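[[Sequence with tokens]]
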Amino acid sequence: MSISISTAFDSGNIRVLSITDTPEGVSADLEIVRDHQSDFYQWFHFRVAGVAGRAVELNIVNCAESAYPDGWAGYSARISEDREDWLLADTSYANGTLTIRLEEDSNAVWLAYFAPYSMERHHDLIAWAACQPGVAHRELGLTLDGQTMDLLTIGNGPKQVWLYARQHPGETMAQWWMEGALERLTDEEDAVARLLRQKATIHLVPNMNPDGSRRGHLRTNAVGVNLNREWHEPTADKSPEVLLVRNAMDETGVDFAMDVHGDEAIPAVFIAGFEGIPSITERQLALYHRYRDTLAARTPDFQTRLGYPTAAPGKANLAMSTNQVAERFGAVAMTLEMPFKDNDDLPDADYGWSPARSIQLGKDCLATLAEMIDSI
């Protein structure tokens, strides 16, 4: 019997082109499926069965034309036997093909671009958080696929803080970050949480793109729209997710905002700001730099050397959330990026960048905010 490859589950994505069984082992040629009504693709997530005691080679052959082909060099796929621990797989990249080699004792294993964060886990997170003391849950509305847009609000202080993640659904590390942030904020014995809940009202959207998450998309929603290019004029028929969240922001105002993402190519954690917005102030910029530098001092998993180029004065793209929120509200806003690869400053040969490190970073980001909440 040859191996079996399946994707019929939440966030599954791969297409089988061929499977070849030889006395030496099994090889399969695969390709990643594009986001619906979009040319974006890079996320994959599939199960391989029948692998116990066999040499298996999996070749994803369409990587050269993926959304971020520079992301494949130095990258390792994640593999799990129990769907809890996700380790680095034996992975190489050459000539547009990502090759993953397996020699497993278990009969079935799961592979993914990064450790998945399922919609079922999302609902578990919302249900758990909504039951914690002092947490209010609100359903903002529905996505195009009829899924709920969930908002959690914690604290009763005057500063309005917005934290939102996973506009790009394949960037699952962003929701692991959210899990860490919620764990800290709901800990009534944690001094950072107690301070923030007293000084601020914190609004969290753990998943901005439920439809893309369930469909196994890299970057877009149910109709192929990149939500992080919709913040200037979101619409109910193309980007209701952004429309619902931005309307809620209009109700509260925003003093501080963090949009949490993952980056395919850069092997580091970094933030990007709003330097090119038309109405930028010295105060906004100074607080942004203070947050960045304080976070770098707090955790060695964050650095300031690598990142995106800054926009020229007046040239910021206001369709992107960080720029729009900074311009619209005068907020201190930023985009946090975590790697699909590893943090090259502190590499982990077994796990690479991981859910655990994303969770811890969420907690560290809150501690950094607490240090300067009075100034925001």
